[in-house]
Write a structure and sequence with these properties.
By secondary structure, the protein is of the alpha+beta class. It has seven helices and 15 strands. It is globular and about 50 Å long.
C-alpha cells in the first residue's frame, strides 16, 4: 500500500517487534500460567503486549489502549487501540504455528486500522479503512467459491450449556450444507484467511473480545467480504456475534445458524 498513515505504520512496526518476541519463544519450554477462566497466558504474551503498548504510547500518547493482558489504559479518548499480543495462545504454547499478533485502531467505534501478523509464516496482513487489504504488501481479496467448495470456521461462544450445544450442532450439521467446517484456534488468523480467500467464512458465536477480531474484521471488509449479525442484519462494532464471509452463500449460513438456535431455544 502506498501512502500508509502514521497510525498504520506504527501498528505494523509494533506487530513486527512483538512478532519477533513470539518467534524467539516459539517451540521452547516457555512457562504457561492459567487464568481464572482457564485460558492460558505465557511470558511471551506479557512481553509482546508490553512492547506493543510502549510503541503505541510513544507515538500516540493521548490514545486509549485495550490490551488482553492489561485491560484498558488511558481511558477517555475516541481513539482506542485493541491489541492481542498472541491471538491463539493455546496453539502458540503447544508448538502449533497458527497464532498471530493482532492490533487494531478504532475511532468513534469504527475500526480504521487493522494488522494481523503471524511470525512463523512471516505473514503480515494489514488494512486501512477505504484503502484495501494487503498481505505482505500485495492486495488481497475474498474468494468466489460457493458452499460446495467452501471451508468455514466456527469460533466458540460463551462457556455455557446452550452455547456449547450450538457450537456442537453447527459442527455436526453444517458439513451437510458446506464442504468443510473447522476451528483453527485463532480468530485473527481465521478472519485474515477469509480476507485472502483461504477460507470462505467465519462464524463468531460471542466468545471473543474486540482485540481478538477488530483487526480481522477490517481485513475482511477491505477485501470485499460481507459481515452481518448472526440474524443477517447490519453488523456494528463492537458486537461479537457475527458472520464474516465472502458473501456468496452468506444467507445460507444465516439460515443454518437460525435453525440451530431455534432448535435450542436460543434467542
Amino acid at each position: 500500500m502506498k501512502n500508509k498513515s502514521k497510525e498504520l505504520k506504527v501498528a505494523i512496526k509494533a506487530a513486527l517487534k512483538a512478532g519477533a518476541v513470539l518467534e524467539k519463544y516459539f517451540e521452547t519450554e516457555i512457562l504457561k500460567q492459567f487464568k481464572e477462566d482457564k485460558t492460558i497466558v505465557t511470558l511471551a504474551d506479557k512481553e509482546s503486549e508490553e512492547i506493543i503498548k510502549k510503541i503505541i504510547s510513544k507515538n500516540f500518547s493521548t490514545h486509549s489502549i485495550l490490551g488482553e493482558e492489561t485491560g484498558m489504559t488511558k481511558k477517555g479518548s475516541e481513539y482506542v487501540w485493541h491489541i492481542d499480543p498472541v491471538d491463539g495462545t493455546r496453539n502458540f504454547s503447544n508448538g502449533i504455528p497458527i497464532f498471530a499478533v493482532s492490533i487494531a485502531l478504532s475511532y468513534q467505534n469504527k475500526v480504521i486500522i487493522g494488522v494481523v501478523y503471524n511470525p512463523v509464516s512471516h505473514s503480515l496482513f494489514y488494512a486501512e479503512a477505504g484503502k484495501g487489504a494487503y498481505l505482505n504488501d500485495k492486495r488481497i481479496f475474498i474468494s468466489k467459491d460457493d458452499q460446495d467448495h467452501a471451508i468455514i470456521t466456527v469460533s466458540p461462544g460463551k462457556k455455557i450449556d446452550k452455547e456449547k450445544e450450538l457450537l456442537l450442532n453447527l459442527y455436526h450439521d453444517l458439513p451437510k450444507a458446506v464442504r468443510s467446517v473447522r476451528n483453527l484456534g485463532s480468530t485473527a488468523v481465521e478472519l485474515a484467511y477469509v480476507a485472502r480467500g483461504g477460507l470462505e467464512a467465519n462464524i463468531q458465536l460471542g466468545g471473543n473480545t474486540t482485540y481478538d477480531f477488530a483487526a480481522g474484521i477490517l481485513l475482511v471488509q477491505e477485501a470485499g467480504g460481507k459481515i452481518t449479525t448472526l440474524e443477517g442484519v447490519a453488523w456494528k462494532f463492537p458486537e461479537n456475534h457475527f458472520i464474516a464471509s465472502n458473501g456468496v452463500f452468506h444467507d445460507l449460513l444465516v439460515k443454518e445458524v437460525k435453525r440451530q438456535k431455534e432448535k435450542l431455544g436460543i434467542k
